[in-house]
């Protein structure tokens, strides 16, 4: 039912003049989805409080609650079309009253780690793009059909929202900016193995795919990464305590995002995965001076796919010991600095990082090898990121001891990757199994850092175990074979001609 509702909402948005792309559809769905979720959450909490004879103090004032303006109901629960605003009245209310009221929460909230502050952040970043109050009325009535009352409903909606983010990524030229393939993220999380009590950070979190998958792994366990029926376990039969759940909710996942739309999607995505007040900040991560980083700022685990190909201004580069305009290389310095001693990281980066001959690249590879144990490099095939025309690798490292040996794995799914042949979990099973023991094979090998040229610190993917390709033949030999085949064909045609 939920899937059809999402499709119907998209149909409404497609006809709306103010929405022209998949990005707009996702943005506009997000703010409506958030307000509907918030109303269901408050209704649920009010009922719980009433059961013990207390009165619930609603976050949102009566006039601005979803059930008052978006979906007013009669006493029998049916939709009240007589009191529901529509047309210019609805557009005027949303733009002139609702959004200013909601964005004001940022100033009124007691602290940044509250849901009130997140409300203010979201509605300070985005605007309603509806130009027709009749289209908005249709979208609101469809959105009201969604329910967030049970764990299973939230789980289904989180999957649908992920699919929406994926479609949005596929639609754009820079799809990887919004969407990292979930099978790849899950493979990275399994290698890093986060445990409850550890902090996880993504300084370029996009739509928070890494944080959401890490949450599901820690919440439900590796077996299936989904609720085991009652949503009260971690997938292997062991229920989490109230304190463990609270730790997951409030003291585990941290993100930063520069752009408005991904930031809003990150908050919505994490909320749908069960984190009510996500610790996601809207900021330019690279504007922070690494010289100011203290131990309290560091994290146990970093999982990230930072943007690559971008260029940062000179004043931003001044925040880093190794000066470079390449965004991804600045992020890698940031991640190394923000990792606790003994901390673990998995970072996606373009494969040219391993071999670039410029001074900044060489210095950064040297820094990585000397300050961290770069134990694994996963070489991803072309097409892993739809819409992104670069090849990538994943760097797995631990901070605190220098690299002695690095294990490489060349991922080969046996097909060209595309929209209909995207990466799946089975493609990465062998990598996960072999990485646990750093096993060598035709696709994997180990490099001793002592053998690396210290004048270049070249870490290129060069598989020494791949089967030898057949040697190239001489041109004369190829021409002779073509002539022989032509002669054979002419002979067969002559025989057929005699038979006719």
Could you give the topology of this structure?
Elements: H1 2-15, H2 22-51, H3 66-69, H4 87-103, H5 105-108, H6 115-125, H7 133-143, H8 151-171, H9 182-192, E1 200-202, H10 209-220, H11 242-250, E2 253-257, H12 260-272, E3 279-282, E4 299-304, H13 314-317, H14 327-338, E5 339-350, H15 359-371, E6 372-379, E7 392-399, E8 405-410, H16 429-435, E9 444-448, H17 475-499
Parallel strand pairs: 1-2, 1-4, 2-3, 4-5, 6-8
Antiparallel strand pairs: 5-7, 6-7, 8-9
How large is the share of residues in beta strands? Answer: 5-15%
Count of the separate structural domains? 2
How many strand elements?
9
CATH architecture of the largest domain: 3-Layer(aba) Sandwich
Characterize the biggest β-sheet: 9 strands, mixed
What is the radius of gyration computed over CA atoms, rounded to a whole number of angstroms?
A: 27 Å
CATH topology of the largest domain: Rossmann fold
- Helical region count? 17
Can you tell me the residue ranges where pLDDT is under 50 for at least 5 consecutive residues?
227-237
Distance separating the two termini: 65 Å
Average pLDDT taken over every residue: 87
The sequence of SSEs as H and E is: HHHHHHHHHEHHEHEEHHEHEEEHEH
What structural category do the secondary elements indicate? Answer: alpha/beta
Bulk shape:
globular
Task: Name the CATH superfamily assignment of the largest domain.
Answer: Vaccinia Virus protein VP39
- CATH first level of the largest domain: Alpha Beta
Organism: Pseudodesulfovibrio methanolicus
EC number: 2.1.1.72
Domain N6 adenine-specific DNA methyltransferase N-terminal: 4-95
Family: Belongs to the N(4)/N(6)-methyltransferase family.
